[in-house]
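User: I'm writing a short methods note and want a consistent example. For Hsp20 family protein, I'll paste the sequence; you return only the structure tokens, no commentary, since I'll be parsing the reply automatically.
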Amino acid sequence: RNYGSFTRSFFLPDNVDKEQIKAKYENGILKVELPKKSEAKPKEIEIAVQKQS
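Assistant:
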């Protein structure tokens, strides 16, 4: 088994919620969770229409 430091860098897509990234190292395995940002949902607005006389 090898010991020492290991470095890996990569770019994250824009849809990753960078505040919620989690990493766990267990039994020689590194697990990284990169949750997606919640998508903006369309908002429905009512607009009053006046009749022309």
